[in-house]
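Appendix B: a complete holo record

For completeness, this appendix reproduces one full record from the ligand-bound portion of the collection. The bound molecule is flavin-adenine dinucleotide. The inputs are the chain sequence and the ligand SMILES; the output is the full three-dimensional arrangement of the complex, encoded as C-alpha cells. No fields have been trimmed.
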Amino acid sequence: MHPFSYTRVSDTRAALDAGRRGGRYIAGGTTLVDLMRETVERPRALVDISALPLREVTVTRRGGLRIGALVRMAEAAAHPRVRALYPVISQALELSASAQLRNMATIGGNIMQRTRCSYFRDVTAACNKREPGTGCAALHGVNRTHAILGTSDDCVATHPSDVAVAFAALEATVHLLGPAGERTVPFADFLLEPGSTPSREQALRPGELITAVEIPALPRPLKSGYLKVRDRQSYEFALTSAAVALHIRGGVIREAKVAAGGVGTVPWKLPAVEGRLIGQRPSDALWTTAAERAADGARPLPHNRFKVELLRRTVERQLRVIGGGK
Ligand SMILES: Cc1cc2nc3c(=O)[nH]c(=O)nc-3n(C[C@H](O)[C@H](O)[C@H](O)COP(=O)(O)OP(=O)(O)OC[C@H]3O[C@@H](n4cnc5c(N)ncnc54)[C@H](O)[C@@H]3O)c2cc1C
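The structure of the chain with flavin-adenine dinucleotide bound, as generated:
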C-alpha cells in the first residue's frame, strides 16, 4: 500500500472542501481499500464521508423513492418502503456480496465500484482502464466473464453492480453535490461505456459527491424482481442478470422496465425488449418473443459466446416470473 492521509468529515461543506483539494471519498471502504492494497488505486488523501447525513430513505412527493448515498446496502434492502415499492431493488441488493459486506457497503459506493476484470486488478497486466494506453489483456486472454455489450477495442470489462441494474431498469436519477452546486444526472448517463477512454467510468466531475439515488414514481400496480445467474449460488458476481418491472392493467402490459447485468460494460437497458412488451397481453409466447431482442448488438468474445443465449433465457425467465405463466 502507498502512504496516504486520512480525514473524517462530518458535514458536506468540509467533504466538498477536501474533495476540491483532490481528496478521495471513502464510504464503507469495502472495495476502495482492496484496490489500494493491490495498488490498483493510489489515492494520496482519503476523505471518510461515512458520518455525513446521507442515510435516509424517503418517499418523494410524487411517490418515488430517494435513497441516500450512505444508506447501507443491508438497510436499503430491508427498508419497508423499498420492499413494498420496488422489490427489484431489495432483491438485487440481497443477491449481492455477503451479509458482512452489505452491512458496511453503501449505495453510493456500490454504483461507483470498479470492474472485477482480473486484468484490471493485476497491476502487471495490460489494462487501458487502469493505465491508459497499455492495451487490453482481456481481449485475447481469459474473457469468459467479460462483457458482450457496450464493449470497445480498448475495454471489455463488465460493470459488476447488481443494484445498478435495477436502477438502470427503473430509470433512476443520481443526485450530485459539487463545488459548483447541486445537479442531477439520469442513471443512463451516469455510468459511461468505455469507448476509447475506459479509465473514465462515471459522469462525476472532480470533487463531486453522490448524495442520493432517486427512483421515479411508476404506475401501480407494479410487479418487479431481479434474477441473477452465477457460477455459484452465493457470494459471486453475475454471469447474467435481469431486472424487470411490469405494470399490467386490464390484462395489458402498460409499462415495462427491463435491464440486464453481467453482460454490459455498464448496466444494460433493454428498450427493444420493453418495446415488444408494451401494449401486449402477457403470454408465454410474448416472453419468448420479447427476450429474443435481449442480446441485440452483442459482440461476444472467444470465451463468452454462451452469454448470448444465457442472457436471452435469463430475461425470458424473469419476464415469466414477473408477468405470469409457466
Ligand atoms: C468479495 C466481494 C464480493 C462482492 N460481490 C458483489 C456482488 O455480488 N454484487 C454487487 O453489486 N457488489 C458486490 N461487491 C461490491 C460491493 O457491493 C462494494 O464493495 C460496495 O457496494 C462498495 O460500497 P462502499 O461504501 O464500501 O464503497 P467504498 O469502497 O467506500 O468506495 C467505493 C468507491 O466509491 C466512491 N464513493 C463512495 N461513496 C461515494 C459518494 N457518496 N460520492 C462519490 N463517490 C463515492 C469512492 O471514492 C470509491 O471510489 C462485492 C465486493 C466484495 C469485496
